[in-house]
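Problem 12. The chain below contains 76 residues. Write out its predicted structure in token notation.
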Amino acid sequence: MLATLARAEDEVCVCDFTSGLPLNQPTVSHHLKILRDAGLVCWDRRGTWVYYRLATDASTRIAATLESLIPAKALA
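Solution.
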């Protein structure tokens, strides 16, 4: 889901995730809520649909976390 949001030029609807993943809507919404609670995604409700986008600092935070787990020199 994060990779999809990172590649997206615009916001992504929950319905797009459910059509592209072998998961049902409650499962997708649950995982997106976890990402929301972590501050990695932002969302906007429009009627019955919810649209998600990557939070502004998410890429930096994810990269820093990965670097702390797997130092760059270990990958070289």
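Discussion. The first helix runs from residue 2 to 7. Students who got a different answer should revisit the alignment rule from Section 12.3.
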